[in-house]
UniProtKB/TrEMBL annotation:
Name of the protein this chain belongs to: C4-type zinc ribbon domain-containing protein
Superkingdom of this protein's organism: Bacteria
The keyword Coiled coil is assigned to this record: yes
Keywords: Coiled coil
Coiled coil: 51-78
Species name: Actinomycetospora straminea
Keyword Protease: no
Pfam families assigned to the protein according to its UniProt record, in alphabetical order: CT398_CC, Zn_ribbon_9
Signal peptide boundaries: none
Residue ranges of domain C4-type zinc ribbon in the record: 203-237
InterPro entries per record: CT398_CC_hairpin, Oxidative_Scav/Glycosyltrans, Zf-RING_7
Residue intervals of the CT398-like coiled coil hairpin domain: 14-193
Length: 246
């Protein structure tokens, strides 16, 4: 294949644009900002679970307090009834003894219940503090997630702009070059990732391998409009003068 040396040199611009576009695509698929969003999502989920657990504790303890309150009320009602009977003067001496005995038992029972109630209320208090703490933690995690999403979207937006600009430049440049040259370049690029490289010294710019003497001699001896290829990677080797005589 033959191509004007200046068109061959512009293949290097095309290769630079393609390399930049490939880097952008790679960056898009390995965005650290995306990883940060996923980490922040996990953190938020952890805090949500903690809030649910704390809320369950609060409602369980609240129910326990209410149940104890009810039991205390029942004991009190019974005590009042017994005292009323004793005060009425309408019960026998035997009944009086039984009622006094029951009142002792009820007072002890109420004491136990009230102690228990106090203890559960303290636990409820602690659970409510814990819930408030977990809710604050969740809010902070949600704010961090929103920030991470914003940074991620910003990074994607930057990549969109870059890919659009470089993509348009590439289209324009490829359109200005001979179709057969670009066709070969694209074919090689699809196969190896790099379609063209500059000859620098004895090194192919595409695969970065050093050429041996005879290959270098053949390449430098070829007519300037000959399209020459690297024996190692197959890419078009563009002679810009930096390899001459090396
Ligand atoms: Zn090469």
């Amino acid at each position: 294949m033959k191509a004007d040396p200046s068109d061959q040199r512009r293949l290097l611009d095309l290769a630079a644009l393609d390399a930049e576009l490939a880097r952008a695509r790679h960056r898009r698929s390995t965005l650290p900002e995306q990883t940060a969003v996923e980490d922040a999502e996990k953190t938020v989920q952890g805090h949500r679970d903690a809030v649910v657990r704390a809320r369950t504790s609060v409602s369980d303890l609240g129910r326990e307090v209410a149940k104890l309150e009810q039991e205390v009320t029942q004991v009190r009602t019974r005590e009042e009834r017994d005292r009323g009977l004793m005060d009425s003067g309408s019960v026998s001496a035997k009944q009086m003894t039984d009622l006094a005995h029951e009142l002792d038992t009820l007072a002890r029972r109420r004491g136990v219940l009230e102690d228990e109630q106090l203890e559960v209320m303290e636990r409820l208090d602690a659970a409510e503090t814990d819930l408030a703490h977990e809710q604050a933690g969740l809010e902070a995690a949600e704010t961090a997630l929103a920030d991470a999403v914003e940074r991620r979207d910003g990074a994607i937006g930057d990549l969109d702009v870059l890919e659009e600009r470089r993509g348009a430049e590439r289209t324009t440049l490829a359109g200005q070059l001979p179709a057969d040259l670009v066709g070969l370049y694209d074919q090689l690029r699809a196969r190896t990732g790099t379609g063209a490289g500059e000859l620098v010294g004895a090194r192919c710019g595409a695969c970065r391998l050093e050429m041996d003497r005879s290959e270098l001699r053949d390449i430098t001896a070829a007519a300037p409009d000959d399209v020459v290829r690297c024996e190692q990677c197959g890419a078009i080797v563009v002679r810009t003068g930096k390899g001459a005589g090396a």
